[in-house]
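Dear U.,

For the methods section draft, I wanted the exact inputs and outputs in one place so we can describe them consistently. I've listed the two proteins in the order they'll appear in the manuscript figures. Please don't edit the token lines directly; just add comments below if something needs changing.

First protein:
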Amino acid sequence: MEVPSRKPTHAPWLDLRAHKIIDPVERLRFLRQEMQGLEAEEGPRPRERFRLPERGLLYAGVVCVMGVLAALWPSGTTQASVGNPPTRKAAPKTPPDLDRAGLAKPAAKVWQVDRSESLETYSNGLRIDLTFRVSHHARDRYPVFPLNGSSTAVRYGTAPVGIVFHTTESQVAPFDEDQNQRLKRLGRNLLEVIRQNRSYHYIIDRFGRVYRVVEESDIANHSGNSVWADASGIYVNLNSSFLAVAFEAQTGATEEVTAAQVAAARMLTEMLRSRYSISAADCVTHAQVSVNPDNMHIGAHTDWASAFPFAALGLPDNYSAPPASLYAFGFEYDSAFLNRIGERWKGLNAADSQMAAEAGSEGLPVARYRGILQHRYKDILGTMKIWEQQAEGGG
């Protein structure tokens, strides 16, 4: 049977239109509409053996694309209503133009070579002084929340998944030989205060000496109100889920950290990443994760808001990562914060664009959508406070 001739579809035009639609959900809707239009225009086609006509090639390509996009579109999505938070149509992710090299690269293997009552040594040259170590509340388990609109934990973690880098904001002296005694005295006084307050797991002093303060198995009081996310979920209040590494330093000082501190931090980061299989994407600064629930602004603490030596520590530039506090919980930032960080993080632009796109896909103004996200955060914060009280009380 002879197949009737048909006017070929302009596949390049359709492909170009689809390619320009960034949101995969909107792209899927567009392709479905076009397919319906083509079916209505032509009606049923006779079956042809051995080869597809030009239109069939287009159908095959479109169906293939639709299949891929459909796999990314969770079932059961609903439109937002006034009283209910919208269901997120896809897990938030870093936009393609901000993909950062090295995130998937596993940490090099580092192992403990020797240990005594006062010192640990490791295969990469790291030496950890144990004379100031102290116990605190044991890390039991912590909730991890979904990337979509639910306020219920999807799982519980028990091991550290990341590292938060801090500065101690303590008094510092010029790093000169004639200041040697003062430098040692200030460092020792700082260690005593940190030990008393259980503030960090590790301190790196001005000479590059690494001290363990709070045991890794325990919780340190380092991040307070804080938010971060990776592909597996959102972490809220990172004291339990992240380890704390602090540089003896003061933000704004002429020489914020020394070369010895940077070298020691690289070895310590390698060891911790190796021990706990920590992703490079979860090695972040205090300024990136700190939030203020009272005014719903990020940057309640601004240590390492800029100039963190990511590359020197073998890490990608995580200032490019969109903060989950913005796109998942609707936090904002002001001009004072932008002045503090100096050069605007690429991650801020990415988070703003992501939230605007999601608001548009839900058919909501950005301000309304932001309010829904902030309400979700407050629900989760209430859950976290109950959990933290139970953890501190041993319940």
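Second protein (the one for the lower panel):
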Amino acid sequence: MIMLEDLTIDAQNLHYKELNLRIREKIKENNKNIKLINVNGQRYICAGITGSEINVKVIGIPGNDLGAFMNGPKIEVLGNAQDGVGNTMNDGEIIIHGIAGDIIGYGMRGGSIYIKGNVGYRVGIHMKEYQEKIPVIVIGGYAGDFLGEYMAGGRIIVLGLDLNNKEDIVGYYCSTGIHGGVIYLRGFVPEYKLGKEGKVLETDEKDMDFISFHVKKFSEYFHIDYEYIISEKFYKIVPYNKRPYGNLYAY
């Protein structure tokens, strides 16, 4: 991950505004590798930060909207994360070594998010893409209700690792309102949990090349055997059409 010596900021007892101010000051001083310790719910970490050479390691649990509007940095969280990770993110990479909350990747426009464990509700809502800019979310565990709701573009990969017999890989209303993008699910697809706007198809060679690329990165980040993950069959959920609610409007 981050190989160079890190500049350390202790977040203990810091208000989120003060913490974010310190991060920005250190970046202005040309510090490219920053480690945050004792993080405990501070919001908006790295929100709006631009710069592809910036690496931020977070030790603790960041609050809502980690990396919101971010454009290029790489964030690695050695713990869990709360809601709104990657909100309207434009570019960069976020790696979470635990679980994450709701609305991960809300309105995400680019970059990638890798989460080792489970995620909450409405992950990938309103994701979008433009030409070659395709945002990606990879989830190692299961996803809660409304995964990919109103999705307009991008890719979501759900691996469903370590599920127990009482859990499906996704919650209810997966793909509700989807009109662009693709959701990939590993293993069994509980079709009774899908929204009526999405349909399940077999993956093709192009799909598997895309999945393989991101699963390899996931495997490297979290030290999980790639061959074990990729040996299971993958399916894809795509929209029935690009205007699922077109008949609700007069024009």
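Candidate sentences for the figure legend, describing the second protein: The two ends are 51 Å apart (CA to CA). The chain has three helices and eleven strands.

Thanks,
Y.
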